[in-house]
Structures are given as structure tokens and as C-alpha cells.
Amino acid sequence: MGLPCVPLLRALTAVAAALCLLLSRPCLAAEALETHLTVTGRSTIFELTMSEGVTAQVFTLANPYRVVLDLPDLVFRLDPATGKRGAGLVSQFRYGQFAERKSRIVIDTKGPVKIHSANMTRLKGSSAVKLAIALMPMDATAFGSGTGAGTESAAFEPGVDGDPIGAPDGPRKPHSRPVVVIDPGHGGIDPGAMGANSVTEKTIVLAVAQQLKQALEKAGLYDVKMTRSEDVFVSLDKRLKFSRDSGADLFISLHADSIEEKTAADNIRGATIYTLSGKASDEQARVMAEKENASDLLAGIEAYDKGNDDQVKNILIDLMKRETSNFSADFSQVLAKRLGKTIEMSRLPRRSAAFKVLKQTDAPSVLVELGYISNRTDEEQMLTPEWQSKVAGSIAEAVQIYFNKRTAARP
Ligand SMILES: [Zn+2]
Predict the structure, then answer these.
(1) Neighbours of 354 (CB within 10 A)
(2) 179-409 has which fold?
(3) For residue 366, how far is its CA from the centre of ligand 1 (angstroms)?
(4) DSSP H or E segment with residue 40
(5) 248: closest CA among 276, 229, 226?
(6) Which among 105, 91, 98 is positioned nearest to 58, based on CA atoms?
(7) Averaged pLDDT, 70-80
(8) How far is the CA of 182 from the centre of ligand 1 (A)?
(9) What's the rounded Cα separation, in Å, for the pair 104 and 235?
(10) Cα end-to-end distance, the chain, whole Å
């Protein structure tokens, strides 16, 4: 079973590239201008109008059921409400930059669907094209895990995906200064939590991360690296790999939460620091880890059942990496103290759960939820550079205290 990926009008791209060469000037990215969903009989047609023809690939995934459309770098000039309302077989869709020079549209479907047809037609009297993908329902057994990412899957580094806890790659390189990896959560197609005034988590955490980098670099004692420094999607596995490859001595993942219920959104406030544990410290921590671990799914990366695998990995962490986890706890304690002096902390400021991005064998790591952007007061504060630099300053202080203690404890 399984439909192959559908290559579309490669010729058009070739012609466009040739034109660019001929005119010897850089070509502007194509623009996504409009989308439309049409329901006819049992099928639902997704249409995307673009300023020019591009090469696209479309495939399906299960758990949850999605249709993924991979495109080159597009400038999205779409109405802000685009994708929020579905029709027919489509419940909603989202779009954004997925990687360097790659855009992606992820269409959530109400059940398993097959790509009945996909074609791109030029609009009369212009260079614009319309891409139409017709979806038809199909039964779950025949759907299986979907058609998958095909050749595009190479971009996800399948050898790395799902195996962050495996054997570390040999002895770590010695380095003179401690390496601090800052990990601004989400990015690109994955906005993270949405605030009361439609501010996104990805924007706030990147701003804080940049300030933190500056604060740490000013101290001149650390090599500071960031898993992303712009609005681009980075998978959780790539974040882990980046940390490992950088030889991180400390890994700090930055996030901001939101709560949907209206009443809760007004009452719940404050920051929380999470460390890794196989068993969640409480229900809220468990839910939070589940939410953060879903980042890859939202961006259309294939899910697969890891069940027992995860258990084995947790045991590995327990046995082999007790030292790393002790250091994580040390840092979380110092950080809670410093942050508590600057910003409001949640009722239980230190919690733990099975966050995928914290599953690191060598680097002590924490995930900080800086506050709730669903709370209007928190959100407004978090948007100000003053608040961001205050928070970054406190985290930088905690980093210094932590490393001073470790150096002092050395024989
Ligand atoms: Zn997050």
C-alpha cells in the first residue's frame, strides 16, 4: 500500500531557475497568497494559490492523522485566521517555515485520508499557480502509518531521531570553558503556546534567550550556544544532538505556558523549573511534559510507538546518569532561588517529568516555564525588554553560582 510522494511541476522550477540565471539576479521567494477548502461529495479539496510554480511534496502521517505538504521557502501572505477553521475531512491546518529554505503546511484531518489527486495549474494571464490536493476518506487499516515523508525524510536525520539516550558518541572533547547551551523552545511552524493577546511562546522565549546569551557572554567565562537563533523549527532530537555535539556542560530550555480555561487563565501565574524524571512529580508536570513533547508532532514529524523503549531508556538514565541528574537538581535549586527574587514563581516552583528535550546523558539540564502567557498581566510583562533582561540576568547569575560551586568542589 502507500501512495508515493507526488512530485509537482519540477519543470516550472527549472524554468524559473534558468530565468534567474539569465537575468543574473537573486530570485525572490514565491508567495503563498490564498487557501481554500472545498467539500464535494466524499472528498475535500485543499487549494493553495501561489505567486509562481514551485516543487512540492505531499504525504500522509498517522497518530494523529495528518497530511503534510513540503514546499520551498515561501513568503506566507495569508489572512491571520487562515487554517483555524476546517471543512469536510479537514479539522484545521497550520503553516510556516520548517527549516532553512523549506516551508511546510500541516493539515490535520478528522480521520485517515488518502491523497486522491494533486496537481498544480497556472492561472490565466498571470504567473500565479493553484495547487489543489483532493483528499478522500479511507479505512484506518489500509492507511497504516501513512505514506511517510519519502525522500524528504533525510532532512529529519532518522538515525538520530528517537535515540538520544543511546550510547554517547565516545569520550567528550575536553574544553577550557564550560559550554552553556540555551534552547529557546518551539519556532517556525510550531508557535508553542498562544497568549491572551495572540503573542506566541516562540517569540517570547527567543527574546529571553538572546538576552541570556548576551548576559552570559558579558561574563566572559562561558562558551554560549543556542539551538536556534531565529524563528525556525528545530526538532527535539536535533536539539538533543546539538547539545551532545556541543559538549554542553549545562542545557537550559526556555518555555512559556498557557492555560485554556478562562477562569484558570486569570488566576494561574508564575514560573516553574522542571528537571527530568521517569515518573512525573505531579499531574500538572506530567501534562506539561506531554504538551512539550508534542512539538514534533505539530510540525509533521512522523510519530512512532516507542512504548517499552522509553522504559528502557529511563532505567539507563537512572543507572548511568545519576551524577548528571544530581547536577540538574543542584542547578534547578539555585535557579529557583535567583528567579524567585526577580519574578513571581508558581505554587510549586520545582517539578519534574519525562521531558524529551531533557533526556541528556551528559549535560545537566532544566526546562524553565517562564510564566503563563494566557494570563494578561504575565503576558504584558513578558513582552517588555525590561522583564526579559531581568529574567535573563537572574538566570545568568544562577549559572555563575552553579559553576562556581562546581569548581570549588573539585579536588
Ligand atoms: Zn513550550
Answers:
(1) 20
(2) Aminopeptidase (3.40.630)
(3) 13
(4) strand 30-40
(5) 226
(6) 105
(7) 88
(8) 14
(9) 14
(10) 62
* Grid cell listed for 187: 519556532
Hey, what's the cell of 122? 497556472
What distance in angstroms lies between residue 57's CA and the mean position of ligand 1's atoms?
A: 28
Neighbouring CB atoms inside 10 A of 186's CB total 26
Q: Exposed, middle or buried, 294 (CB in 10 Å: 0-12/13-18/19+)?
A: middle
Contacts of 272 (CB under 8 A, 6+ apart): 257, 288, 345, 346, 348, 349, 350, 351, 368, 369
Nearest CA to 58 out of 118, 128, 122, 98 is that of 118
8 or 409, higher pLDDT: 409
Distance between Cα 84 and ligand 1 center (Å): 20
Report the pLDDT value the prediction gives residue 402, as an integer from 0 to 100. 93
Question: How many whole angstroms separate alpha carbon 82 and alpha carbon 48?
Answer: 11
Residue 196 contacts residue 269 (beta carbons within 8 Å): no
Would the pTM of this model clear 0.70, i.e. be above it?
A: no
C-alpha cell at 129: 499557480
- Residue 170 φ then ψ, to 5°: 65, -175
Measure the CA angle with vertex 402, ends 398 and 405; round to 5°: 140
Instruction: Name the fold adopted by 10-146.
Output: Immunoglobulin-like (2.60.40)
Q: What is the pLDDT of residues 352-396, one digit of tens each?
A: 998 989 988 778 999 999 988 887 878 888 899 999 999 999 999
Estimate the crossing angle of helix 201-219 against helix 385-409, to 10 degrees. Answer: 50
**Distance from CA of residue 177 to its chain's centroid?**
29
User: Using CA atoms, how far apart are residues 410 and 38, in angstroms rounded to an integer?
Assistant: 67
Residue-wise DSSP of 272-331:
EEEEE-SS-SSHHHHHHHHHHHTHHHHTTPPP---HHHHHHHHHHHHHH-HHHHHHHHHH
Closest of 10, 301, 308 to residue 146, by C-alpha = 301
Q: Measured in angstroms, how far is the CA atom of residue 147 from the centroid of ligand 1?
A: 29
Q: And the C-alpha cell for 271?
A: 514560573
Q: State yes or no: pLDDT of 334 exceeds 90.
A: yes
HSE-CB of 239 using CA atoms within 13 angstroms: 31
Distance 260 CA to ligand 1 centre (A): 14
Query: How far is Cα 359 from Cα 310, in angstroms, rounded to an integer?
Result: 10
User: What are the sequence ranges of the domains in the chain?
Assistant: 10-146, 179-409
How large is the average pLDDT for residues 291-309?
A: 68
